[in-house]
Amino acid sequence: MEIKGIVKKVGEVETVSEKFKKRELVITVEGTYPQHISVQATQDKVVMFDGLRTGQKVTAHLNLRGREWTSPSGEVKYFNTIECWKLEAKEVKSAQNSVAQQVSDDLPF
Predict the structure, then answer these.
(1) Please, what's the b/e burial string for 54-87 (b: 16 or more CB within 10 A of its CB; e: otherwise)?
(2) Which of 9, 46, 56, 98 is the most exposed place for a label (fewest CB within 10 A)?
């Protein structure tokens, strides 16, 4: 599955244990009722979110994961995770770079 949207928030890498790390990315999917979708990358995939900026357009390729957990009191609960395994990001041109490019194109030499 995949979603397309705009980066709202890029989280820091969280080290859960010596063998597990994760990182959150919040993507706003536009529409009549915009949705803010939190996805995560784990282990060596956390670097996929390096260099992303708020407002950048992305396509996230996802797997939906679910698991069952039994509490010490015997209560069974279910948890879901949206795992990002591939991310495509569009380059964002800054206004400053665009102005610099236009100015240098107007020079007579």
Answers:
(1) eebebebebeeeeeeeeeeeeeeeeeeebbbeeb
(2) 98
